[in-house]
């Protein structure tokens, strides 16, 4: 692909220039736009979205039963109450919520769809980014310029999910599908389905496919911690009747954030107690005598990897009804009619769903340059979990792994807006982070999930101490990011 050079771009009169360029029109990107235009209405901005619709992850994933695995009172925006009855909402409802937020705020008119950002170069002399995007609908190359670049594309690779190499899969005569590329016309009615995986996607798919499939087998190599949560929050619904909508939403948001972070802290500090507690609950949800040791007891402690939630016991109810069979084993090879396991067991299948995980990518494969020099992300360190050393006028959103993504996104957006306001008031054109050489390096995401371990070496580093540490605790970030010191000795403004 041929792209226009930075020097050529400066001479093109038709290149649009904005104050802030946001990458991604998903949950984070729409939220960032709202914070920006409501608090700094004089700023111009645009949103570049690689897909043809608003929603990000919630537009990409269309498999049966797709839903949030966080409650909507914390996954929703702090500025727009979630008014749905269900706390654990389906993907279509979440997508509609994001779309409505964009439409009601006029944000949708700032979105350029089918614009996949492939490169961004910062010029110190001009204090501007030149951003190159590829039009996926026409194949044309487009450039825009901006004073500040904000990446809200998350860390999933939207091009493809992760699928291991399975021996003999070329011999299988059935249908193989990854949830990230779920075909609208996939026919599984009355058929035998095997879902490979043990994470949130697999445990969501199994009970939903079982409604129409003749039989569903959930095949896992090793178990995950799985708990049930009511799809409706009775306390939230009661508060709506007693308080004004915004007040009820705020109280529920704090309550659920406390519960989520509290659960995480309990699991980290008292793993043996929490193991016993989770097991006790599962005994009540599953048939008497069910083999929990094999199918529901991981080798790791709770919250060393993400704890999976199911709404209203749907997976456990499907197991009790013999609609879903849980098999814990290793795949030896595929056969013409299904999967042969290392134990010698054969699983027949008309459809195999490889819910085997996601690929992570830092900032959507965007090639970043500063003054002509390519940025090596692994040489950078994150600052307050939202900016990087050596990359001026750049911020990103990465949410919590142990709580709702939007809790962190709202804090980041609020901080960035305050920083931009401070720069305007003092006549600064550039903000740059200077790395503290005495701070130790740690992986960007300190999380043992397979999808993280496969990709974390290509990400920036985090530091061993604040403000270089990527905290996973909303109640520690809240005072530091919303009310704490805006500028410190690590920040250079000019």
TrEMBL record:
InterPro entries: FAD-binding_MO, FAD/NAD-bd_sf, Flavin_mOase-like. Its EC number is 1.14.13.-. It is an enzyme of class 1 (oxidoreductase). The keyword RNA-binding does not apply. It comes from the Bacteria. GO terms for molecular function: oxidoreductase activity. Keywords: FAD, Flavoprotein, Monooxygenase, Oxidoreductase. Coiled coil: none annotated. Its cofactor is FAD. Pfam families: FMO-like, NAD_binding_8. Belongs to the FAD-binding monooxygenase family. This is NAD(P)/FAD-dependent oxidoreductase. The lineage of its organism: Bacteria, Bacillati, Actinomycetota, Actinomycetes, Mycobacteriales.
């Amino acid at each position: 692909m041929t792209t226009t050079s930075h020097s050529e771009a400066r001479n093109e009169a038709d290149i649009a220039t904005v104050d802030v360029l946001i990458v991604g029109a998903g949950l984070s990107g729409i939220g960032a736009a709202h914070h920006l235009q409501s608090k700094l209405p004089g700023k111009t901005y645009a949103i570049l979205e690689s897909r043809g619709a608003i929603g990000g992850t919630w537009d990409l994933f269309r498999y049966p039963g797709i839903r949030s695995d966080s409650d909507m009172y914390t996954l929703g925006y702090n500025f727009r109450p979630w008014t749905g009855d269900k706390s654990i909402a389906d993907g279509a409802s979440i997508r509609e919520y994001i779309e409505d937020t964009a439409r009601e705020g006029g944000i949708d008119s700032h979105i350029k769809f089918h614009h996949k950002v492939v490169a961004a170069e910062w010029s110190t002399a001009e204090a501007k980014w030149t951003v190159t995007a590829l039009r996926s609908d026409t194949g044309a190359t487009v450039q825009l310029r901006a004073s500040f670049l904000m990446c809200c594309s998350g860390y999933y690779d939207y091009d493809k999910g992760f699928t291991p190499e399975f021996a003999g899969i070329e011999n299988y005569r059935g249908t193989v599908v990854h949830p990230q590329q779920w075909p609208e016309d996939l026919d599984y009615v009355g058929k035998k389905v095997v879902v490979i995986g043990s994470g949130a996607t697999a445990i969501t798919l199994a009970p939903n496919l079982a409604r129409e499939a003749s039989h569903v087998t959930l095949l896992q190599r090793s178990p995950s911690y799985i708990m049930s949560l009511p799809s409706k929050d009775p306390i939230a619904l009661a508060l709506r009747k007693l308080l004004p909508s915004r007040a009820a939403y705020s109280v529920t948001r704090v309550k659920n954030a406390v519960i989520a972070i509290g659960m995480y802290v309990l699991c980290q500090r008292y793993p043996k107690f929490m193991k016993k507690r989770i097991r006790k609950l599962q005994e009540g949800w599953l048939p008497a005598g069910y083999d929990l040791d094999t199918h529901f007891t991981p080798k790791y402690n709770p919250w060393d990897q993400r704890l999976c939630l199911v709404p209203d016991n749907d997976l456990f109810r499907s197991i009790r009804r013999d609609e879903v069979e849980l098999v814990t084993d290793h795949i030896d090879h595929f056969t013409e009619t299904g999967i042969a396991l290392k134990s010698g067991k054969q699983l027949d299948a008309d459809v195999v769903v490889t819910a085997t995980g996601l690929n992570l990518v830092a900032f959507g494969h965007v090639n970043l340059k500063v003054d002509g020099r390519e940025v090596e992300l692994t040489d950078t360190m994150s600052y307050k979990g939202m900016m990087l050393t050596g990359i001026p006028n750049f911020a990103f959103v990465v949410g919590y792994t142990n709580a709702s993504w939007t809790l962190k996104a709202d804090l980041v957006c609020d901080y960035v807006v305050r920083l931009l306001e401070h720069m305007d008031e003092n006549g600064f054109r550039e903000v740059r982070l200077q790395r503290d050489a005495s701070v130790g390096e740690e992986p960007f995401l300190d999380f043992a999930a397979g999808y993280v371990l496969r990709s974390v070496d290509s990400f920036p580093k985090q530091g061993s101490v604040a403000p270089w540490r990527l905290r996973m605790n909303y109640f520690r970030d809240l005072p530091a990011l919303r009310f704490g010191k805006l500028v410190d000795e690590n920040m250079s403004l000019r």
